[in-house]
Amino acid sequence: MRILVAGSGPAGLMVGATLARRGHEVICVDRDPGPDGDEWRRRGVMQFTHAHNFRPQVAQFLQAQWPEAHDAWLALGAETISIPGFDDPTAKGVFSRRSTFERALRQTATQQPGLTLRTGHVDSLVEDDSTVSGVRIDGEVVSADLVVDASGRSGRVTGRHDPELDGECGLAYVDRAYMLRPEAEPGPMNAPVGFIGDYDGYQCLIFPHERGHFSVVIVRPTHVPELKALRHVQAFDAAARAIPDLAAWTDPRRSQPTSGVQMGGALRNVYRSQDGRPGLVAVGDSVATTTPTRGRGVAMTCMQVSALLELLDDGADPVSIAKPFGMWCDAHMEPWVADHIAIDEGAARRWRGEDIDLDRPLTSDLIAAAIPADPRIGQYAFGYFTMTELPESLRPAEPWARAAYETGWRSPFDEGPHGAELLDIVRTSAPGATV
């Protein structure tokens, strides 16, 4: 079978390489020619240099389907992590920068028999009696038995239909990359993935990466536009100094910046069902895009590619595979996007000063956050946290969480300035500010 993959990011390379390993002829097309020595800026991929978290599904997928890529990733310094107290293999993730991850995939893909990496622009689909039969690459028609849209959240090649779910999350973020100084120990961590800090009016995340690299993220509400000034180094550094756990990580004696302050693009949670045209499927961000606050993106891509491979391995017709694959995505991907929309909308309301609305169903994050108030909730949380069970798996614990909140209990904020204080810090430290 001849397969054309539009896009050579993680989704495109993973689906392309694993299909080539099965004996298919695969062409992956991308405008980006790949790394040139140490320098690599993925054109059109905003999130390429931003903070990333790699959940257990990513390493599991590579180990099972493309072990050479997993080995190359570790050789570039990626570090396997575990959740203390759990021996379950699903509890292992990876510390790595996105650029290191993609470099490992690219490096391995160039050596994969049956896979051709082509630099070019996919102009449009080619259809024959309503069946997709190939694409136009820079004007040239290239035929294929199956076309895979892995062109990402902003891809336009397939003329996508309106999404089934599309939610503005009310959140935006800035982040900055750092590197620990020689012999310096990492700063405080309160989660296997690093540090997750919830404050009165904003959130902070610290993602350790490989070989001492790490990223600091400040997530802010969009209804306070003055906080856009966090994009300035002076304002970001002042905020980091004022938030104790960020200050510990970014102390100049412990680490040094390796980038300026980077702004995240417009954050949305989007789910698109499969197009439905015979001969065409979509994977990765072309299907489901979620905000980076929970680090689900690449894991969801691996879950999709695994499902697509299983269908093809079981003999599904590539021309009509969009229907069964679409049913799988509706059942296993759409719930995660809906979960994100509910969580982000709720966080935005609380950052405006609203209390938890106990007349509405509790969102997953609120149920899980109540574990300290009622430890019984924990028995339902592991599958949700590791994405091995859908968000509805937490629903049996909702009555316990609701009972805790009805007593007036609320999850305490982490130590740091509240939203109004952070705003004052930003106002007085941004360029041109007057004290």
Provide an overview of this structure.
With 435 residues, this protein is of the alpha+beta class. It has 3 domains: 233 residues, FAD/NAD(P)-binding domain, CATH 3.50.50; 93 residues, 2-Layer Sandwich (D-Amino Acid Oxidase, Chain A, domain 2); 53 residues, no CATH class. It is 32% helix and 22% strand. It has 13 helices and 18 strands. The strands form 5 sheets. The chain has a 5-stranded parallel beta sheet. The chain has a 5-stranded antiparallel beta sheet with strand order 12-13-14-11-15. A hairpin with a 2-residue loop joins strand 7 and strand 8. Helix 1 runs parallel beside helix 7 and helix 7 runs antiparallel to helix 8. It is globular, with a radius of gyration of 22 Å. The termini are far apart.
The portion of residues assigned to helices is 25-40%
Compute the number of structural domains.
3
Task: Report, as a whole number of angstroms, the end-to-end distance.
Answer: 67 Å
- Give me the CATH architecture of the largest domain, please: 3-Layer(bba) Sandwich
The spatial strand order of the largest sheet comes to 5-2-1-9-17
Compute the number of strand runs.
Answer: 18
SS strand fraction? 15-25%
Give a concise summary.
The chain has helices at residues 10-20, 56-65, 67-75, 98-109, 233-242, 244-250, 297-313, 322-332, 334-351, 364-369, 378-385, 398-406, 419-429; strands spanning 2-6, 25-30, 79-81, 93-95, 115-119, 122-128, 131-137, 140-143, 146-149, 165-168, 171-180, 195-199, 202-208, 213-221, 255-263, 268-271, 280-282, 288-289.
